[in-house]
Amino acid sequence: MTDGLILGWEEWVALPALGLPALKAKVDTGARTSALHAFDIEPFGPVSRPKLRFAVHPVPGRTDLTIACSAPIRDRREVTSSNGESELRYVIETTLRMGDTEVPVEVTLTDRTNMAYRMLIGRQAIQPGWRISPADSFCQPRLGYDVYHTAEVKLAAPQRALRIAVLSREDNYSTRRLVTEGEERGHTVEVIDTTRCYMALNALAPEVHCDGQRLPRYDAVIPRIGASITAYGAAVLRQFETLGTHCVNGAAGITASRDKLHAHQMLAAARIGMPQTAFAASPKDTDNLIALVGEGPVVIKLLESTQGKGVVLAETRTAAQSVIDAFRGLRANFLVQSFVAEAAGEDIRCLVVDGRVVAAMKRTARGGEFRSNLHRGGRAQPVRITREERETAVRAARVFGLGFAGVDMLRGHDGPKVLEVNSSPGLEGIEQATGKNIPALLYEAIERRVRPAPVRKRRAAAA
Asked: Is 51 domain-assigned?
């Protein structure tokens, strides 16, 4: 019920949908529409469902306390202030709370930095039956600015809409799922072709451009950079990192994980189990190279191999020498690894999101094949992993600083052995095998990370 509410010329109000639990507002029946202090106002999202994101300093004089907000755009209007100046303002609709009363209100956004009140309540917000007492102040329950420093308020803050970029050249299952799930959660997700990006390198104002336009400020970037463009994709990603954008996977981690030799060196340094591995450049070292990993069978991998391509199983020393000679004839770089026979053509893919294994599947090679990759015809099914396997997967992702990674490992007789850490794991196979909504788990991690910087713990005097 809103009948009988009495308002003074100034009141404490809350805008809970925007994460603003306490604002001191001036009641101004001379103004038609209510107004809220806002800065860094930026429209985003599709034309059919445009949104705004903006920031608010809720406490006058406290520029160190910033609340980030977002809301759908309702309108854009020409507003004339009391001093006769006209301004084109965005209009949003939100919920106004005073005491136990909540009503929907239209609010225009404008910079009120120099105003004593962060909000002005116009006559449109005044409901039938309400009465204005212009000689009184704070007829409704008083609030205080100290509320912005309580943990309860931070936990109850609404999840603001984010603007997220997916760096991808492909319209595949994984990219489509990332877009669909992000939009269902209220975010705006834009797919950007990595190779169409270019950069302005500037110490004061670095920028990323694409197709002739400067890209906007994104809250987060999800890189899906193909192996063939790793170097350039990493350069683009470093530019976003320079801008302070949260990148789910960093450029350094992607680059290191793609270089199989470097990756194995990093795993070895972290004392993470892996198949016995050897590398050499000189053809004179072939016999010694094979001897380091065992007489046979051995696995020979091109350093640039993906999806099981460029991976050969040599059953005997003679076969291994022939494959090595062939690869060297092509001037290809490769690794030689021991063959983990007890794995029996099976490996485990653990998907790690923000330091936690969220899904795991077992991949089984088809008959006559030792590679279990799904792209090679392997079959997938959910699997229950051991504590040691879980910890190994998390540690392996952490070695490369990856917030989203697929860790492939074999079950050896002496524990799990990591084969590869994939910085752009596919989603289709593991979602179908486990029934898990992987993009939702990824967005939950992004939402936890992409928050305004914590406010400084300083007690503000409530007036």
From this structure: yes
Going by C-alpha positions, the residue among 280, 47, 70, 59 that lies closest to residue 158 is 70
Q: Which residues pair with 217 in a beta bridge?
A: none
Report if residue 306 sits inside a domain.
Answer: yes
Q: Dump pLDDT digits (tens) for 140-173.
A: 999 998 888 765 555 455 667 889 999 999 899 9
Distances (CA, A) of 381 to 177, 201, 285, 410: 20, 47, 41, 15
pLDDT tens-digit series, residues 259-288: 888 999 999 999 999 888 888 666 566 777
Question: What's the number of domains the chain is made of?
Answer: 3
Q: How confident is the model at residue 423 (pLDDT cuts 50, 70, 90)?
A: very high
At CA 356, angle to CA 353 and CA 358, rounded to 5? 70
Q: Are residues 26 and 69 in the same domain?
A: yes
Contact call for residues 18 and 37 (beta carbons, < 8 A): no
Last residue of a domain, one of 107, 132, 156: 156
Range(s) of the domain holding residue 332: 276-339
pTM attached to this predicted model: 0.72
The conformation of residue 405, written as its DSSP 8-state character, comes to E
Q: What is the mean pLDDT of the chain?
A: 85
Look up residue 283 and give its amino acid.
P
| 27 and 135 belong to one structural domain | yes
At 146, which CATH number?
2.40.70.10
Q: Residue 216: what pLDDT?
A: 87
pLDDT per residue over 387-397, tens digit each?
999 999 999 99
CA distance to 128, 225, 438, per residue, from 435 (Å): 52, 25, 9
Quote the CA–CA distance of 120 and 123 in Å, as a whole number.
Answer: 10
Q: Are residues 151 and 167 in the same domain?
A: no
Q: What does the chain come to in residues? A: 463
